[in-house]
Amino acid sequence: MPQSSVPDERLRLLLQRRELMQRVVDGTTDRRELAAESDRSQSTVYRALNQLEDVGILTEQNGYYDATPVGTRLFTRVQQLHAEAAVLERVSDTAPVSSLDGLDPCVLREASIAERRRHDPLEPLEPVAEIFERNDEVFAATPILLPAFEQFELEAMTEVVVERAALDASPELLSEDREPVPEYVGVTEREVPFVFVVAESDQPECCVVVLDNGSPCVSFQNTSVDAVRWVRDRCLSFRRQSDTLEFDSRERQFVPVE
Length: 258
What we know:
It contains 9 helices and 11 strands. It is an alpha+beta fold and about 260 residues long. Helix 2 (about 20-25) crosses helix 5. The chain is elongated and about 85 Å long. The termini are far apart.
């Protein structure tokens, strides 16, 4: 087999033999047990094991198999891809594919998903409301200020960055009438692709709300380290490139801090 084709062959075999590889990773290493647990014939299982060994995914000794370091690493990635694909397939009827562009795959893996429903179009915002309820400090960056935000208990909102057009359209949603005002309110000229919400606490969590024509269509709530870090970094990025605002009670609008 040409060396250049080995990586592709490894991934192809792992995708095809994912369940068999999972049993090896989980601790079933005797090929007779592996064959007995499978709904395939013994010869098919043995041939699959030999193929995985040939490309360096498994090693064999006296009929027992172990994953190689390369095999373990590649299998972890294959499992991640499988999980991401399952999520994308689930939400394909809810969220246009184009609306997911720019969403890091780590947000999809291990996520709790809330989809828009005909009887409850605000369902994707429920995880956001729950984050506000559970935490004392919440940071957000958002392209829109939905009227639905009014139903949230926003005492926990510490910082928020909003697209300028959204703030101009609905300044009352972050006014002094909604005490307390966040410690930091910023406006950005950049496009904010999703509603980003992240809570810094003993148990950090985050949520990304995907929009379809300005309306929430699906949200991904996650507590994984990678997802929280990614959402936090997005919020900080918008924070660094935003102008600080304060609410002018006489003008009833936000104005730049001089």
